[in-house]
Design a protein that fits this description.
This protein is α/β, with parallel strands linked by helices and about 475 residues long. The chain has helices at about 10, 40-50, 85, 90-115, 135-150, 165-170, 190-200, 265-270, 320-335, 380-395, 410-415, 425-445, 450-465, and strands at about 25-30, 30-35, 55-60, 75, 125-130, 160, 175-180, 185, 205-210, 215, 220-225, 225-230, 230-235, 250-260, 280, 290, 300-305, 340-355, 360-365, 370, 405. Strand 11 and strand 12 (about 225-230) form a beta hairpin. The longest helix is centred in the N-terminal third of the chain and has 25 residues, at about 90-115. Bound molecules: flavin-adenine dinucleotide. Flavin-adenine dinucleotide binds near residues 212, 289 and 376.
């Protein structure tokens, strides 16, 4: 692995991208959206679908899809980060509605892709949450399944696969068990985001690129060269929200990195499984994710670091230890992949609010709407947020507006908790990721005594509780 990293998804885009103009004047709009990732584009899409006369302008700092939307692992997952925080507070009936809304995100993404003819390899093969490395993961997975079933989810939503059944689906070296859920699809993320950008333009949305917003004021968003005056401004910057001073205390950028193999032959796939292109993880608290791409590659990612002061990195050299760590982990899980060429490595950042759960906040008094905080699970969730913001703007009373992550008359400052000041924020995040790594190492060891394994698992549980 040498050379500079490159994003598999961008390299595999079908044709050279069309360049879009930057904003160089004062324009007016009904709605101005900051950020041309999924959140901004889904919002624009539903606005134009439901109220075609609405004048929508999108301002993007780089190019559409530059952020996490063009770089992610391609899980279109029917779940929200820390959803239990919201759902646990609901009545049993409302909780069932909440789960239905969350599961339906996957199909709604699929419906739009089919309707608009976006070629992005969407395939709904479900997801395997595999206890792949040590016994404590299996215990944790069992607890998760019990909780989901207690919440009213059925066997058709989540079911247990014992060792042999799991191994038939995914031949990880030490797989012990897995939960299978049908509520997940996979996509080629960059094709989705670029396809969406083209669709919204066809619907009449103006998309300005290389136009970073420097000031978010009431009734307008300013760039170095121009202004969009609009009574409603939607901030859809997610992992980049800290670039606007007003949002800096509430959202931090956390990195995630991925490696991709060369296309594998049929024999290799027979030795691995994933015959229905199921998404998969290894149930580590470090958060891993993988998929079998439409062209037969294995891609595998794991959550990375938060850097001091919220520094963001967009590219790493291929020989960077962050990539080596992921390749080692991939080989540990699938020894049959040793010797296969790693062709790509890349990463990006996503947004994490202090609650580690997503939100839609409408500061009605100022005309500001903010959606995001997906904590690494935003591909499908951004669709839900886009529809929700549309209902807020068009004042359509809908089921979505009654969801517990929607705050209709709230300022960001009163709704969200600030992150701890630096350097405590950085120390805290480093300590947590080191503890999770230590847990994996100790529990995986064949020589570590039982008391040490119990201690690191307990520490992990306590840290997860503190993160609540
Ligand atoms: C490596 C990686 C893997 C991931 N894997 C998955 C996965 O498999 N499944 C899943 O559900 N989620 C995944 N995620 C998270 C998911 O990609 C994001 O939650 C989602 O893409 C967020 O979309 P968004 O539009 O809100 O933000 P983004 O796509 O980040 O878009 C924000 C946009 O705002 C622009 N911007 C920044 N500053 C300004 C400014 N001042 N003015 C104007 N524009 C600005 C940026 O350039 C960017 O294009 C992953 C994230 C990463 C980084």
């Amino acid at each position: 692995m040498t050379g500079h990293s490159s994003i598999l998804w961008s390299d595999a885009l079908p044709e050279p991208r069309r360049t879009r103009p930057s904003l160089e004047s004062r324009v007016t709009a009904d709605v101005c959206i900051i950020g041309a990732g999924y959140t901004g584009l889904w919002t624009a899409y539903y606005l134009k679908q439901r109220a075609p006369q609405t004048k929508v302008v999108i301002l993007e700092a780089e190019i559409a899809g530059f952020g996490a939307s063009g770089r992610n692992g391609g899980w279109v997952s029917g779940s929200l980060a820390k959803q239990h925080k919201y759902l646990d507070a609901l009545s049993a009936d409302d909780r069932r509605i909440g789960y239905r809304v969350i599961f339906d995100m996957v199909d709604e993404v699929g419906r739009v892709i089919a309707r608009e003819g976006i070629h992005c390899d969407y395939h709904k093969g479900g997801v395997l949450y595999a206890a792949a490395r040590y016994a404590e993961q299996e215990t944790r997975l069992r607890r998760q399944l019990e909780k989901l079933h207690a919440d009213g989810c059925g066997e058709g939503d989540y079911h247990w696969l014992g060792r042999d059944q799991a191994r038939d689906r995914i031949a990880m070296r030490d797989v012990r068990a897995a939960i299978f859920s049908p509520h997940c699809a996979v996509v080629q993320p960059a094709r989705l985001v670029h396809g969406l950008a083209d669709v919204v333009e066809r619907l009449g949305v103006s998309v300005y690129e290389n136009s970073p917003v420097t000031v978010l004021a009431d009734g307008e968003a300013r760039t170095a060269q121009g202004v969009v005056a609009a009574p409603l401004v939607v901030t859809a910057m997610e992992g980049y929200s800290n670039r606007l001073p007003k949002l800096r205390p509430y959202m931090i950028p956390v990195h995630s990195l991925i490696v991709a193999t060369e296309p594998l032959d049929d024999a290799a796939w027979r030795s691995i499984g994933l015959h229905n292109r199921e998404a998969f993880d290894d149930s580590s608290r470090q958060i891993t994710y993988g998929q079998r791409t439409a062209d037969g590659r294995m891609i595998f990612g794991a959550r990375g670091k938060y850097y001091l002061g919220g520094r963001q990195i967009d590219a790493w050299p291929m020989d960077h230890p962050e990539f080596r760590m992921r390749v080692n982990l991939l080989h540990d899980l699938f020894p049959q992949l040793r010797g296969v060429r790693i062709t790509h490595g890349w990463g990006g950042s996503f947004g994490m609010a202090r609650a580690m759960a997503p939100h839609v906040i409408f500061d009605r008094a100022r005309g500001h709407i903010w959606g995001g905080g997906y904590t690494g699970e935003g591909v499908a969730a951004s669709n839900l947020v886009g529809r929700t913001i549309t209902d807020l703007i068009l004042e359509r009373e809908s089921e979505l507006l009654r969801m517990p992550w929607v705050f209709r008359n709230d300022a960001v400052a009163t709704r969200l908790r600030s992150w701890e000041p630096e350097p405590f924020r950085w120390f805290g995040s480093r300590a947590i990721s080191l503890a999770f790594r230590l847990e994996d190492q100790v529990c995986r060891s064949t020589t570590a005594p039982g008391w040490r394994k119990r201690a690191v698992v307990r520490l992990g549980d306590v840290l997860e509780l503190l993160m609540r």
